[in-house]
Amino acid sequence: QVQLVESGGGVVQTGGSLRLSCAASGRSFSSYAMGWFRQAPGKEREFVAAISWNGAMTYYADSYTDSVKGRFTIFRDNAKNTVYLQINSLKPEDTAVYYCAAEIGSYYYTKEYEYDYWGQGTQVTVSS
Fold it and tell me: How far apart are CA 26 and CA 5, in angstroms?
């Protein structure tokens, strides 16, 4: 099992940047593929980005939508048991609770049901 704790959210002005962190505790963090999702008020949770166990493969929602295109970067430090989401050029529509998720596997996953472990979320609010 793995426990996940997100941090780094807050209130930021349009155009600003944030780096979200997700610290994992438990066994064998490097065995897990990791993902970031977000849920805006009144909307369903949506996929943002995912990364393979060793960081060699990443996948972003911008592969099929412009909502995060070029502004989000996922990366991980297995020595620190942490995955990150760097968000630049923040927009009001990025306002959401951001969740990290983990699943054992060597690839990456983009669907909620593919993940067994979730953090509690961190709030990001972008003011206009």
Answer: 12
In angstroms, the CA 114 to CA 63 distance is 19
Name the one residue in this structure whose structure tokens are 């060699």: 56
> How many Å apart are CA 41 and CA 96, to the nearest integer?
7
Say whether 69 sits in a helix, a strand or coil.
coil
Residue 3 near residue 81 (C-beta atoms within 8 A)? no
Report CA 19 to chain centroid distance, whole Å. 10
Single-letter residue type at 53: W
CA 123 vs. chain centroid, Å, equals 12
What value does the mean pLDDT take over residues 9-30?
A: 94
Q: Which residue has the tokens 């897990």?
A: 32
pLDDT digits (tens, 9 = 90+) for 71-98: 999 999 999 999 999 999 999 999 999 9
